[in-house]
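Here is an idea for our session: we take a single protein and study its fold together. To get us started, please write out a protein record for me. Start from the sequence, derive the backbone structure tokens from it, and show both lines together. Go ahead whenever you are ready, and we will take it from there:
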Amino acid sequence: MNSESKVSQKADASFTMDDFAKALETHDYQFQKGQVVHGKVFQIDHDGAYVDIGGKSSAFIPREEASLRTVTDLEEVLPLNERLEFLIIRDMDAEGQVTLSRRQLEIRHIWDKLAEMSENSKSVDVWVTGLNKGGVTVDVQGVRGFIPRSHLVERDNLEALKGKVLTVGFLEVDLNNKKLILSQRLATRSANLSELQVGQLVSGKITGIKPFGVFVDLNGTGALLHIKQVTQKFIDNLEKVFQVGQSIKAVILDVDEGKGRVALSTKVLENFPGEILENMTDIMESAEARAEKNRKKLEE
């Protein structure tokens, strides 16, 4: 046997089981609170289940953390020897055991889904669970949310809303601070926007007049009739033409669902420049026929 083999054999012989155990102890298992891990349930008892996540000690998931819903049989939601995803909710104890949760992981996934829906301007159905002076509390797929009174369609009788399902949009989704602020009015406006089309004749009420244009309420959806879209003739003062509270008809020029904006035009209803300044009543009464004539002209 050559000298190299003797050295190798001596080295192998000197690495005992104690050394192996010490090597395991020094292995860096970085299991920390907030970390998502995978593991297999290998034992279930009355209080919870033990999970192998590859650490020095088994992990434990308490019964109340097994699922977002109420569970009678743990094995239904924690099948034995099946690879599952868990969230660490408590750091290692003295024995190196961490505490896990499936319930809080489900909640985190719901928050992620709600944030994505918010980014895409989607709406969601919620269940009204309580109320206070500021608005109502709601359940959103297991997550608690809040709708301010100013963002409710029905603001005068909050008691009547308890137990009802409302369709809402998102104002704020903050997972870190567990803050979910919603708006029923926003969802109503979005629903109305989805029904509007460019070229469509709509009716509304003037809610405000500014130097640059007229604000119009289209059954809960705000729209703008810009001063340049009022008439084909130059106009310098919109208050000479319109009044707040006045009902008007106009054609939709543009719908921006992302920003919740609608642009209107009345000048496309004119048969000659300045007609709306001279005969507003006739234009409003024959608006349907004028809008159809304009639509056909655009198609030619």
Observations:
- The chain has three domains: 36-101, 121-189, 196-299.
- Helices lie at 3-14, 17-25, 74-77, 103-119, 184-194, 275-278, 280-285, 287-299.
